Amino acid sequence: MKTQELTIEGMSCGHCVMHVKKELSKLNGLTIEDVEIGKARVQYDETKVTPDQLTKAIEEAGYKLVPASN
Q1: Helix pair angle (14-24, 51-60), 10° resolution
Q2: E strands in the chain
Q3: According to a count of CB atoms within 10 Å of the terminal CB, is the N or C end of the chain lower?
């Protein structure tokens, strides 16, 4: 399991948090640790969840995932 902190643009309220949680919860192999305005912390099985799936889930919720800087 990989733990990752996601930075999310466009979130401004509790409804935003609920939308992101709803979309992320649809991903099989992912556990949501925490979602706050502007970020989410998740654990996921890299054999079941891809970075593209994370990006798509955030976009489906109506927000933009900020690419992680290495």
Answers
A1: 140
A2: 2-9, 30-36, 39-44, 64-66
A3: C
Instruction: Report the CATH architecture of 2-66.
Output: 2-Layer Sandwich (3.30)
Name the pTM for this structure: 0.88
CB 25 within 8 A of CB 32: yes
Instruction: Burial-class residue 33 by CB neighbours within 10 Å (0-12, 13-18, 19+).
Output: exposed
Taking only the tens place, the pLDDT of each residue in 14-59 is 999 999 999 999 999 999 999 999 999 999 999 999 999 999 999 9
